Amino acid sequence: MSPTIALDAMGGDHAPQVPIEAALVAARSGVAVFLVGPEDILRPALARATTRAPSNLEIIHAPEVIHMAEAPSQAARRKRDSSIAVAFRLVHEGKASAMVSAGNSGAVMATGLFEGGRIAGVQRPALAAAAPTKKEPVLVLDLGANTDPSPSQMAQFAIMGAAYAKTALHRPRPRVGLLTNGTEEGKGTDLTRHTDELLRGLGLDYKGYCEGGDLFEGNLDVVVVDGYTGNVSLKVVEGFMKAIAEFIETEVKKSVITLAGSLFMRRLIPAAKKRLDHEAAGGASLLGLKPNAIVAHGASSVRALGHAIRAAQALAECDVTRAIEAEIAAHPSLFKSNASTNA
Question: What is the pLDDT of residues 17-36, one digit of tens each?
Answer without folding.
Answer: 999 999 999 999 999 999 99
